[in-house]
Specification:
alpha/beta; 9-stranded mixed beta sheet; 13 helices; 9 strands
């Protein structure tokens, strides 16, 4: 079992850290608000007051925070992880973040004798709770092999994609697929309502056929119940789509479906819905 520091106890991070505790690892946590960690502390985790303090004795540091700027501050800031972590340790950023930042952190960590992986996840709050996340990993293959038991405590589908940044590129591909799919799910429901169909009955039929998807099976029922609580925040999805659009631009790749989805979600965020779950895209159509 390993001494693991987990940074970022949000909607998903709290469940991921809890699953590592269940697997028998010694867990230290850092989050800006200590109160968010109380449940984990009651289960046996320890808390420290800064990323540096939390990392002093760690063998592995895992982060799951909100934005690339948070990742950069946690690892490269004055009281950041790399200022305190010992040579021979491993850092794993599981935030959906910038591929270029992942490559920068990998290089700076390597200069200190520290291994680094970028390992963003998919599966939302449900996948995090059930240790059923899909985990996409970039970095050195030998580091991935060593960390595989740690990943297996949090996820079911774990894939190594290549050099540093590759995990983030894989996650961008995931978000691109979700973006257009979410528009399709919401438009199908909006259309069914306008036609006078029973949306519940419609979902029970089309989810079993070629239209079936994770979003249709898991998020559409929440939409119909008016449950827009975040499994994944709109504000974080907008962030992801902006990263994907930026990297696509760098590759001279036009992604019109992604661009439209980002525009619609940005409109919802500007209307004060940034803390709703991504299934709240249905509100865009209901407001018409």
């Amino acid at each position: 079992m390993s001494k693991i520091t987990f940074i970022g106890i949000g909607v998903m991070g709290s469940s991921m850290a809890a699953n590592l505790l269940k697997a028998g690892h010694e867990i230290t946590v850092y989050t800006r608000t200590k109160a968010k960690a109380e449940k984990l502390l009651a289960q046996g985790a320890k808390w420290e007051s800064s990323p540096a303090k939390a990392s002093e004795n760690a063998e592995i540091v895992i982060s799951m925070v909100g934005y690339p700027r948070d990742v950069e501050e946690i690892y490269l800031g004055e009281n950041g992880v790399l200022s305190a972590l010992k040579s021979g340790s491993t850092i794993i950023d599981m935030t959906t973040s910038s591929p270029k930042l992942a490559q920068k952190i990998y290089q700076l960590a390597k200069e200190k004798g520290i291994s680094a992986l970028d390992a963003p996840v998919s599966g939302g709050d449900v996948g995090a709770k059930n240790a059923a996340l899909a985990i996409m990993v970039g970095g050195d293959k030998d580091t991935y092999d060593k960390m595989l038991p740690v990943f297996e405590a949090m996820g079911k589908t774990i894939c190594y994609f290549g050099a540093a940044g590759s995990g983030q590129y894989a996650k961008m591909s995931n978000q691109i697929a979700i973006a257009s799919n979410m528009m399709g799910v919401c438009e199908a429901i909006a259309y069914a309502k306008k036609c006078g169909l029973n949306p519940q009955e419609l979902l029970s039929v089309i989810s079993t056929g070629a239209a079936g998807s994770w979003s249709l099976s898991n998020l559409a029922p929440r939409m119909l119940k008016g449950d827009f609580a975040p499994g994944f925040f709109i504000k974080h999805f907008v962030k992801d789509m902006k990263i994907a659009l930026e990297s696509a631009k760098e590759m001279n790749l036009n992604l019109p479906g992604l661009a439209l989805a980002e525009k619609l979600y940005e409109e919802l965020a500007q209307k004060g819905l940034e803390n709703d779950g991504t299934q709240a895209l249905l509100k865009y159509y209901d407001l018409q």
